[in-house]
Write a structure and sequence with these properties.
Mean pLDDT: 93
Order of helices and strands: HEHEHEEHEHHEHEHEHH
CATH class: Alpha Beta
Helix content: 40-55%
CATH topology: TIM Barrel
Shape: globular
Structural class: alpha/beta
CATH architecture: Alpha-Beta Barrel
Number of domains: 1
Number of helices: 10
Largest sheet: 8 strands, parallel, barrel
Distance between the termini: 45 Å
Radius of gyration: 17 Å
Number of strands: 8
Low-confidence stretches: 255-259
Bound molecules: SN-glycerol-1-phosphate
């Protein structure tokens, strides 16, 4: 099975202290904006582009993916809300199971529907335990998946879920507060889960500043995902600050060189 993108991202995150994944939601941006964002991402120091949404409403999704893929040399990784978002125009897919929920559709059914396409398109499948964490509001992913999140004051429950994913052989944990969440995943929960597991953790949802990115990395996230913050036209200018906050070791080295 292919694993080169996973290995490359993990190696880079190890060297630079973390990795920055930019989420592009195909339902929220027009094609020219998607392309412009992808073009600027590489220059800004983004490690990879995630593409996905809770509920796809874009009829030209596959054509848009093709244009997006040809506009960047960064890895393009699918972050699908369902099997209908498996596209041949990507390098890899976060092959996720919504392990915090008890809805068989998102635990295994969509995966069964999507698996033949992942194989046919020769996508690198990165097995990921996807955990929804309570964020202070009712999010799209909760509504669409019909699942309840893990309470934000129950890190022990989050640890048990993450460990189960690791023992099932999953390669990553994604702790998700939900797109546009009021509150991101709590730092103490990130700390406790990252101490409990040996696989890399992605953290996303409701992260709105470089300082918040730094806090998630310091707490133990290997990768931080930001999407909503860069959906407004012209918001790209601060992309580099977010990427730098995800790469504390690279930043420290540069500072030393300058000194
Ligand atoms: C959502 O974790 C991602 O699935 C990113 O969330 O859009 O809130 O940055 P935001």
């Amino acid at each position: 099975m292919k694993d080169s993108i996973y290995k490359r991202l993990c190696a880079s995150a190890g060297e630079r202290g973390g990795g920055f994944l930019l989420l592009v939601d195909p339902d929220k941006s027009e094609l020219p904006e998607l392309l412009s964002l992808a073009e600027q991402a590489e220059e800004a120091g983004v490690d990879a582009i995630l593409v996905g949404t809770s509920f796809l409403m874009r009829p030209d999704f596959h054509e848009s993916m093709k244009r997006l893929k040809s506009s960047t040399s960064l890895p393009v990784i699918l972050f699908p809300g369902s099997a209908s978002q498996v596209s041949p125009e990507a390098d890899a897919i976060l092959f996720m199971s919504l392990i915090s929920g008890r809805n068989a559709t998102y635990l295994i059914e969509e995966q069964v529907k999507g698996a033949p396409f992942v194989k046919a398109y020769d996508l690198e499948a990165i097995s990921t335990g996807y955990m929804l964490i309570e964020s202070g509001s009712y999010t799209s992913v909760e509504y669409v998946s019909g699942t309840r999140p893990i309470p934000r004051n129950k890190p022990d429950l989050a640890c048990a879920h993450a460990l189960a994913a690791q023992y099932l052989g999953m390669k990553m944990i994604y702790m998700e507060a939900g797109s546009g969440a009021n509150h991101s995943v709590p730092d103490d929960m990130i700390q406790q889960v990252s101490a409990a597991i040996d696989i890399p953790m992605i953290v996303g949802g409701g992260i709105v500043s470089p300082d918040e990115v730094s806090q998630k990395i310091t707490a133990g996230a290997a990768f931080v995902v930001v999407g909503t913050r860069f959906e407004a036209p012209g918001s790209f200018e601060r992309l580099r600050e977010y990427a730098d906050a995800c790469h504390p070791k690279a930043h420290a080295d540069t500072t030393q060189i300058i000194r």
